[in-house]
Design brief:
The complex is a heterodimer.
Chain A lengths: L7 H27 L60 E8 L11 H16 L7 E8 L4 H14 L2 E6 L7 H5 L12 E5 L3 H4 L4 E3 L14 E5 L2 H10 L4 E6 L4 H6 L1 H9 L3 E7 L10 H10 L3 E4 L3 H13 L8 E4 L6 H7 L7 E4 L11 H10 L6 H24 L6 H8 L27 E6 L2 E6 L13 E5 L8
Parallel strand pairs in A: 1-2, 1-3, 3-4, 4-5, 7-8, 7-9, 9-10, 10-11
Antiparallel strand pairs in A: 6-14, 11-12, 12-13
Helix pairs in contact in A: 1-12, 2-13, 13-14
Chain B lengths: L1 H27 L7 H32 L6 H17 L8 H23 L9 H22 L16 E4 L2 E4 H23 L1 H11 L1 H6 L4 H23 L7 H18 L5 H21 L13 H12 L23 H19 L15 H18 L1 H7 L7 H18 L13 H20 L4 H19 L15 H4 L1 E2 L2 E2 L3 H24 L1 H11 L1 H6 L4 H25 L11 H14 L12 H14 L5 H20 L8 H9 L7 H19 L10 H11 L1 E4 L7 E5 L8
Antiparallel strand pairs in B: 1-2, 3-4, 5-6
Helix pairs in contact in B: 1-11, 1-12, 2-6, 2-9, 2-10, 2-11, 3-4, 3-5, 3-9, 3-10, 4-9, 5-24, 5-26, 6-7, 6-11, 7-9, 10-11, 10-12, 12-18, 13-20, 14-20, 14-23, 14-25, 15-21, 15-23, 16-17, 16-23, 17-23, 21-23, 24-26, 25-26, 28-29
Classes of the chains: A alpha/beta, B mainly alpha.
Chain lengths: 495, 753
Amino acid sequence: MSKSKGSMSERKSRRVALRWLSAVLALGLLAGACGSDRDDTDAGNTTTTTTEAPDPGGDGDGDGDGTTTTTEAPTADPCADVTLEATEIGVSEDTIKVIVMADVDSPLAPGLFQGSVDGVMAWAEKVNAEGGLACRQVEVEFHDSKLNGQTTVEGFLKACDSALALVGTTVLFGLDVEDLNTCADQAGDPTGVPDVSYITTEVPHQCSAVSFHLSRPGAECPYEGGERDYNASVGAVSYLQESLGVDFHGIFLVPSDLPSTIASMAPQTAAQQEVGVTFDGVFGASGSATQAEFGPFVNTIRDNESNYVYNGSNDQAMLKMKREAALQGLDTESITWLCTLSCYTPAFIEEGGADAEGVYIWSFFLPFEEADTNDELAVFMDNIGTDFPPAWAAGAWVDGLLFEQAVEAIVERDGPNGLTRKSVLDELATVTTFDANGWWSTTDFTTTNTIGGCFVVLQVQDGEYVRVHPEERGTLDCTIDTVAVTTDPDTFTLD
Amino acid sequence: MKRFQIRTSLLVALGAALASLTILVWRYGADTEVSSEKIVVATVVGLTIGALYSLSATGLVVVYTTTGTFNFAHGGIGVFSAFVYWEIVENRTGPELPQWLGLLLVVLVVAPALGVAIDVILMRRLRDAPLVVQLMVTVGLMVFLLTLTGQIWQADKIRGVSFFWEGQGFSIGEQKVAWHRFANLVIAAIIAVFLRILLFRTRMGVAMRAVVDNRDLTALNGARPGALSAFAWALGSSLAALAGILVAPEVEFNPTNLNSLMLIVAISAAAFGQIRSLPLTVVGGLLIGLLESYNREWIDLGADFPFAGRAVAPIVLFLVVLALPQARLSVGRVSNNLRPIERTTHVWEGAVGAVFIIFMGWAIARGALHFLVWDPGEWSSVSLNKGISAMVLALIALSLVPLTGWAGQVNFAPLAFAGFGAFLFLRLGLWFGVPDTGGTGNLVWLPVIGLLCAPLGALLAVFAARLSGLYLALLSLAFALITSNVLFPHPQVFPRVHTFPSPYLDVGLFRIDFDSRFSFFMLLMTMFALGMFCLVVLRRSRYGRRWVAMQDSQAAAATVGVNVIWTKIVVYATSSAMAGMAGVLWATSKSTVDFRDFDLLNGLTIVLLMAAAGMSFPVAGLFLSFQFVFEGLAERLEQTGNVGFLVWLLKDFLAKFGPGMLAIGMVVNQRGAIFEMGKGFAPLLPWRDDARAELAAERATKREAEIGGLGLTEPFTSEAVVGLDSALGIVDDVTPGAGYRHGVARPMESTHD
């Protein structure tokens, strides 16, 4: 399934070069840190997590954590003098099997989350090339959930039967999580399967005790309907209001093809209103809508002299909206166009052309263009096999990294034979500050209703994504707090 | 008279639509602002979109008027053509091809060629096929074309098609109208006028319509039905291509989006013109566009009805079909029943078959078939889950046997009935206070829910009683769309966040617990076998005979004293009860029931596969598992390391193209795969003398054809001699040394068995 990324020897030589570069950089940074009284975590409003992990490969090269800010103490080789055992379903003497499940092949959206599959495959390839995980090679099996609830359940069952964990799960129909939560482990206990997922929209999956979502809903669990407590990140909106010196009032485009995607936008609208945004209209932007159907939205902008359009839907919705506005003669430059990561794609620029110009995008991870500023991002870009991967690929890779760090912590504590589903779940449940070695906004996996508040704002300028804020490359702004809101997502109505 | 009927239906449909709109505005739109500016914007948007609907619908009408086939593949042809246009215009790497030239190339060359190919390869063989076969072949073609398009132009990049006269237009008040959109409106009107003249004012058009009424008579008058039919398909395909290319710039350019926009609404618009009148079809398209636009602007049904807007076209379709004049009984024609004398299965045969199916289900799931060449082993929980899904679908499919297979009432909405069953099961569980199960926890409730679902079917039968054929199929299509877009998404029907832990673990029948996936699978197998046996008994009953008689000829059935209306009500109620009970089992097999489980696409797949397998045979329900079997086999092969051509064939080719190809295969096998398999298998059974006699008769007929007139009615050529020799088993003796001797007869017993 993974894409070709050059020959093994080329990759190996790149990795060796990268290790040398990392070592030099680490020494440089260490020297810099010794010569300065600045706290790293404050530099450029950047949070940096230093994760100490054992050297999984046991070759003493210290590449287990991927960070450059930590000097590792020499550790004993955990694989030495250990007879490896099949400690759990999916863990044999020489392999660890994980499953990546994503909605890929469906007539409704062919190829939708293929990036997630590529991301996990690339991560596993990297881990294996470095000597493996818990003294074993990582084996990845792809299960296509096909935008279908039943096929999604089959993926959970497959994981129950054969895998240690699910990694990089990117599914929109995670409704039936009974098996995921309760299936038996090797000891016969109803432990469930650890699920390190990227995206989920359905409440049962969001609230699953064995699921750890990287792209978090920031919502209270358990949830049985009615009002729900959320935390929402609106840093980019606050920053733009302040920097442009205007109070936004305008329209909000909601992805309206599923009840869950509609409901998922309820906290974001409420949070933006909390920071002073007034909505002249909250409209559904279905994937099947024609551009002409955006006409009335344009009319709302004209009637209210709106200065703001927020797109929570996909990149095509943003383009249709902007094109219709231009067609109707609106001064599109007088409007602030803000979009989620869905507009951070090569297709948005390529397909959008002049219509994509000026659009702001907020991201909770460092952009791909800044691979030289972060080691983890650099390794990802080196392995993923494309200059501009989809965000799903990055999320799935980071899921892999989270899983890797949890496993390494277990190995350090209990040895390579301490690896079970329960130990993985216990380890993941203690992670409070995961930031993918400085690449992503910090995530706390001990609760469900927290969300990382760090962000970076990009803008499309002359056909490229250009960093707008914070100015310093390689940094995220973590100074603006998330907003706590309480809302009933099922009563969230569109205009 | 016909003109009067059209006007009446138009007025009724208009009145109903306006009444609905007025009520909704009055009820929900009290606080919304209505300004002239908003009216202008909504009207311009509505007409813009409506023009696209009209364009697409005219193609449907042309094909139906001139070939008698309602072409569900219309959208698929448009989608394929639009992607070809994208390839040669937008994705071209060489010298730039002007948009207009690309349009002409696709509309005048590519699409007509595709249309002629469809006619020659497929449609000519369907001339006398039953309606359900004709419809299912076009549905299969649609699925095939969409899959093919998706495979050729994979989603590895986002594609877009530019507007003609990009960015240019004129203003009406503050609203700007793009030239492209205005052109849509003009083209729709011009095409309607052109086609009206072509079909009603030219000799060719009259001949094209005459072919539909009586092909032989038209040929006797000097027309060439084959050429006319090919021209009709070429014309229809060109219109589909034109609509596809003009719609493409407006939408997210992928096959599913484009098809849904081109097909569902186009069907409603075409129905508005009774699939005959082109001007009314154009009016219908524009009206639906306006209704959708006004609905978006002023009607707010709240968060409980998030997809009600999608139901505007289906509601129009439902109202229009209801407003149609009563179908006249078809008299004076020979029934198109392909098999005059049909042997009905004996009760004991049904019982043996049911036991055999249960045994095979057990043996396969338990991996007891070690004697097979390739032992698949015991089923994993994933395989059992696939098996459970397949058996639930098979049970739903059984409900189509009496309704469509025997009574001939085409039904695209089996999942609507199943959805009601699931809803009632969940609600009864909640109302009766059974905690945490989401259902009653006991399958004793199954017949109760069947009884509760029966009136729903009876109610639809009351509507359907006046209709037959295509209009009945369209009514069920509208019903399926309305339930899946309006009723089922309501949170009070299927709660959006509530889950039910391991329902089947709590399910029991009397004192038997089905506490594992395997036992639940066996429960479903048993219920399928039981349902199949009941249908065998029912087929032999008085009602079974009445239903079949009704399909053969309603007029004849009425003449011999069958109450057609009552018979229809009973068969709809029976089918609805069966589907409702299957819906309960569906709900029981999952921990969360979601409205998306009951959408039109899933239901259409059931109907498609049942038709391909043989709608009138209960055992055909097992065909619903074919996709699961392919996927399961492929996975098993992958697990054993056999990755290669076979896996690709099973997983990537057959699982994707299979449903469409199976349905297209009905062109040569109109009674379904089960019928053909039965024809080969039955003569092997010791008690089936009738099957052996039938086989012998069939061979004799074939032999007569091969002999070809013995030189009396046809020229006595050397080819005829060879054919005669072959049929009579005569060989030439060319033994060395013995010389040449013609006409050494072989023993003939093989031809007289």
